[in-house]
Amino acid sequence: MAQNQPIFQTKPEEHFVQIPINNERDSTTLITGNSNRKPNHWPTIILSTIFVILGQSIARLLENFYYDQINRSEYDENRQNDGVWTQALLQTVGFPLLLLLPFILLTAKNHNQPSCQFHYKSLTIIYICIGIVMSVQARLSAMGKLEIPFGVFTLIYTTQLVFTPIFARFINKIKFNRWVVISSALAIATGALTLSSSFGGEPDEAEENVARGSWAALFAAVCFSLLLCNFQNVFDSYIFKRTESTTARKPSFASVFEVIIFSSLVATIISAVGLLIAGEQDDLKREMNEFSKGRGAYVMVMVGQAVSWQVYWVGIVGLVFSVSSVLSNVISVVTWPIVSVLVVIFFNFMDDEFDVFKGVALITAALSAAAYFFRLHRENRDH
């Protein structure tokens, strides 16, 4: 890995050949006021954005299909939260797929330096903490959607766009400019406008637990914001310094896979233990046998969700690596109206249609992303 050429070459034929493995970043984020970083590698940013959109869209569609096919509307209140640990587990359990990428092993050869033992010990603790937060966030969001109307959940969960800049300011020392503020404000509007979206696991009035569901949604939003900011802290404070001290190079995009794999390993262990303690393994057998489309379709839906969530995490962490936690959060939220429209197209949920809210949400989503990307373009031009 250390023998590859850096991506910032003057030769045009070498500018795009290393996507995304060898994309390198400086330790400062683009939206800081005193950034000295080199221009962003646009292909990697665009590819990460596509991963977020595709991964989240497919995962959410399969999640809706899952709840639709298990006839959750027939559940009583004793089965209200059936499957929440399963859904939490699916968000991280697919991480072994990332081990199939051979360049992960190449980067490992550059990280076996005794001078970095402090960083390895610190990273181990940080990965454990991030994994715990990932598991808690997945569990709370899965539970919140089953406790309160999906529109209410969406409104509360949108508060992550308030928490992320706050945490980023204190954890990552980020300074904001007007384009980032505009982008975040439009993203908040986008999230709020998806309140008319439908969800296959939405509870009926008798099943609603507004207090518990609202708190779950709020803390899930806080946890997601903490995740993004701690991802950036790992890159800026540890991986960046470790790589430069051992190889005199900037960290490659393979660092993204390192962060996902180790954090997801911890989260998967926690979710699996929670699943076993809750006895959901018995529910899995029953659901497989009762799945409307058959056992094969059930397995495909579960595997599809696990794979899609990994695609999503690669995009999310990739955007943190390439730009910042704030952009990563913005792109995640502006995908919601896309998912909302796809649900209307592929499902026939009651009273769910393409209304003015979904239309305006698509517009504000496009404007939010455009505002942030325009800022990136100006920053690159200034460099």
Describe this entry's structure for a reader.
The protein has helices at 42-69, 84-90, 103-108, 117-147, 150-157, 160-171, 178-193, 210-247, 254-278, 280-290, 295-322, 325-334, 336-346, 356-382. The chain is mostly helical and 383 residues long. The two termini are 27 Å apart.
The beta-strand count equals: 0
Q: How would a textbook summarize the main sheet? A: none
Tell me the structural class. mainly alpha
Gap from first CA to last CA: 27 Å
| Helix and strand element order | HHHHHHHHHHHHHH
Name the overall outline: globular
Helix percentage? 55-70%
Number of helices: 14
Q: What's the alpha carbon Rg, rounded to whole Å?
A: 21 Å
Instruction: Tell me, rounded to a whole number, the average pLDDT.
Output: 81
* Uncertain stretches of 5 or more adjacent residues: 1-39, 107-115
- DSSP strand content: under 5%
